[in-house]
Amino acid sequence: MTNSLLRPEQVAKRLGMSVSWVYSNKHRIGYVQLGNAVRFEQCEVERYAGSCKRGPQNEERKWESQSDTEKAATNGSSRKRTTVSDINARLLATGRAKNRPENTQRHAKLQ
Fold first, then answer.
1. In whole angstroms, how far apart are CA 10 and each of 7, 14, 40, 43?
2. In this predicted model, what pLDDT tens digit does every residue of 47-67 receive, in sequence order?
3. Please, which residues have CB within 8 angstroms of residue 7's CB and are 6 or more apart in sequence?
4. How far apart are CA 64 and CA 43, in angstroms?
5. Residues 29, 21: Cα–Cα separation, whole Å
6. DSSP state, 15?
7. pTM of the predicted protein model
8. Which segment, 36-40, 81-85, 100-104, is predicted with the most confidence on average?
9. By the number of CB atoms within 10 A of the CB, which of 1, 41, 66, 80 ranks highest?
10. b or e along 5-26 (b: 16 or more beta carbons within 10 Å of the residue's beta carbon)?
């Protein structure tokens, strides 16, 4: 099985990005320098795309990264992220959220 070299234009098309983005991120993807020419190994492009992949998670947070999944598999060695529901539940438990309006604006526009 041969690992073919791809031109930056081909990598941009595969990843759905611009050619300038490919050049800017060539160190993250991994590349081969042949004289002045920059080429990318197909397997490295696929590996990079796989490392960017995100997957579904619980119903409150729709998506999570692979790194979040890996942390979850380490038996709680990383802290759980606090969600809006967590904060609302804590406020309700302390009785502090009773007088708060349901939907408040963070910034009021000045007229």
1. 5, 6, 9, 13
2. 999 998 887 765 555 556 655
3. 39, 40
4. 24
5. 11
6. H
7. 0.48
8. 36-40
9. 41
10. ebebebbbeebeeeeeebeeeb
